[in-house]
Design goal:
DNA Primase, Chain A; 3 domains; DNA primase DNAg catalytic core, N-terminal domain; globular; Dna Topoisomerase Vi A Subunit, Chain: A, domain 2; five-stranded antiparallel sheet; 335 residues; five-stranded mixed sheet; 11 helices; alpha+beta
Length: 335
């Protein structure tokens, strides 16, 4: 039934999407409503809705945005999103359940507030524990917010019994949880300790949950510093992390605020360069690291002897937008 509702709302949303066309039963193509697809070529259409199991999802092959069907609808047409939430509720409710009052007009996914992390915090571990030693050697702060899983696979199966992706039994990982503004657990990231084919594994408790670290502490009345890695965000005043390089995806998820987008200092990394260019094209504030900074990310800068306040000052002095950002970006990149 979920797929039937999603298909119905693809049709309702289609009038809001430029160059919309259905490719086959479960693939629809249109201009991306997040990045605009291309300001130079109005015939470009690289946004897709596609089927994954019993749900539909959105992905843009230009800006890299990836959203659930619900979050796409919420971004493009908030009033239609409220209808979508009502249909979803009807679909999952029993016939004798009284429908809630949706007049408050701020529908959100239903969260399971009972899910807790039953693991030791890194702060509680002995000083010589390998996980604690790794983080203290890297000068990672706020160890009371991080956890240790001696068996990551067993931990995931405990909180998500139906998780269907392959995990390695007995693998040790640092757990980095992310919460919403009401301190409800949305998911977590497992950071490998030592050698691993997959350094980070990010798991959401629900497909509609926002994959953003720091929502429980961010103050949108102040400037918000957006980085990729949760650990890097811990050093910044009012920092949040997107957990991937598409930092500008925070805008459709959280709305327009005073953001500064801070990418890793890797001028030879084609993926980072691509996302930085997209951020500049969107006319957003971006930090372009100065030439005298050799370290590739904030944690490396901390390990080299800088303080969080020094790094924040460097970021503020090197934040640009518009033409100035384009000029500094051209001098910085090396691809």
């Amino acid at each position: 039934m979920s797929l039937i509702v999603d298909r119905q709302f693809v049709g309702l949303l289609s009038t809001k999407l430029e160059r919309f066309v259905q490719k086959n039963d479960y693939i629809w193509n249109f201009r991306c409503p997040i990045c605009g697809d291309s300001h130079k070529n109005k015939f470009k259409a690289r946004g897709y809705i596609y089927r994954r199991k019993s749900d539909l999802f959105f992905s843009c092959h230009n800006c890299g945005t990836s959203l659930s069907m619900g979050n796409l609808i919420k971004t493009v047409d908030p009033s239609l999103y409220r209808q979508y939430q009502m249909e979803k509720f009807k679909e999952t409710s029993h016939s004798n359940t009284r429908a809630p009052d949706f007049a408050w007009a701020k529908s959100k996914p239903v969260f399971d507030t009972s899910v807790k992390i039953n693991l030791p915090t890194i702060a509680s571990l002995p000083a010589d524990h390998h996980a604690k030693k790794y983080l203290t050697d890297r000068k990672i702060p706020k160890l009371d917010k991080l956890y240790y899983a001696a068996d990551f696979k067993a931990f995931v199966e405990e909180v998500l019994p139906n998780y269907d992706k392959t995990l390695i039994a007995g693998e040790k990982r640092i757990i980095i949880p992310f919460y919403d503004e009401k301190n409800i657990l949305l998911g977590f990231q497992g950071r490998a300790i030592g050698a691993s084919k997959v350094k980070y594994i990010t798991i959401k408790l629900h497909d509609d949950n926002q994959k953003i670290f720091g929502l429980d502490v961010v103050d949108f009345k102040k400037r918000v510093y957006v980085v990729e890695g949760p650990l890097d965000s811990l050093y910044l005043d009012n920092g949040i992390a997107m957990m991937d390089a598409s930092l500008y995806n925070v805008i459709p998820m959280l709305g327009s605020h005073e953001y500064v987008f801070i990418y890793d200092n890797e001028p030879r990394n084609k993926d980072i360069v691509k996302h930085m260019k997209k951020t500049i094209d969107l006319q957003k504030n971006i930090c372009i690291w100065p030439k005298n900074i050799a370290e590739k990310d904030i944690n490396d800068m901390i390990c080299s002897g800088m303080t969080g306040s020094e790094i924040q000052s460097i970021i503020d002095r090197n934040t640009h937008n518009g033409l100035k950002a384009k000029l500094e970006f051209e001098l910085w990149k090396k691809v």
